Amino acid sequence: MSVHEGRRSPLRLLASVGVAGVAVALVAWVPGQSGSSWSGVAQVVREVSAPDLAALAVLWLAGLVASATGLAACLPGLLVRRALALSLAGSAVANVLPLGGAAGIGTNYAMVRSWGHGRAAFATYTVVTNLFDVVSKVVVVAVAAVLVLLAGQAVLPGALATTALGVAGAVLLGALLLLRTSVATAVGGAVDTAAARLGRVVRRPLRTDLRHRLPQLGASCVTLLRRAWPRVVAAGTAYALLQAVLLAACQRVCGLHPGLALVAALFATDRLLTLVPVTPGGVGVVETALSAVVLAGGLPAAPGLAAVLLYRALTVAAEVPVGGAVLLGWGLRRSWGRGVRDLAPEPAAEGAA
Question: Do residues 337 and 269 touch, judged by C-beta distance below 8 A?
């Protein structure tokens, strides 16, 4: 390990601990700022029956399978069960690290490479799946805004529309990069030039070659989109609907009966704030925002917050141990496979007696 890496490691650990501390503090603060208490929330959760919890778990798993179907369509030869493993393992890593999306992608890259998929195919898969994720969340926000306006309820956070417009602009820019070769070439060339200048400053050559690689990646993404978009859109729609039903079901098992507009507002807030999670999995930030929507919608504080925490426990917290187990199983199987290859006898030399 280099001196620079040694210096960065404590800083990374400190940053991780600090962000995790902020997330925990925010979650701990939520009941008080919503006019409830942890004892009141715990009482509501204890009254949820085991069959209801099992039904919620089935809804959660059904959503993951629907999502995995779309992921499998974005990487030729990827089985749905392996796509599900990618989703769970990547989420487990991303949900425990600050801005852990990059680490989750790195984990997925190692997994798909072990299954024989190439680098270029994984790059295309990553771009397309993330693009569809952003688009689907923006669509959810737009649909929720319409439902809230029709219901005449002002329950969406004030910054929601502004943030949605910003995200939509970023999506359009990304789509433009994918669809217009000239734009991708120009952007790639600009990055190459900037990298070359930076290399001269630090006296270390930095070669990116994005002028050629970015248009090639864009062309691959367009080809994949033309072939797989019906399956990806269907899977993404099913996943979003199942997640929304799960959120509504969490409200019901906690004794609440919110209207469609309020459920849509809660779901849109969750989708939007998980686009760029400041804390791991958006923990603390999302719960705080959702509790504000619960209060704005006129729901009782303790049951409303209990439903929010139950939903987040399934969609975020549960993915950590389950995804961790998947990742451990993949690692053990990979190590076992290497051991078997190492123990296998070498083929006899040609012509040997």
Answer: no
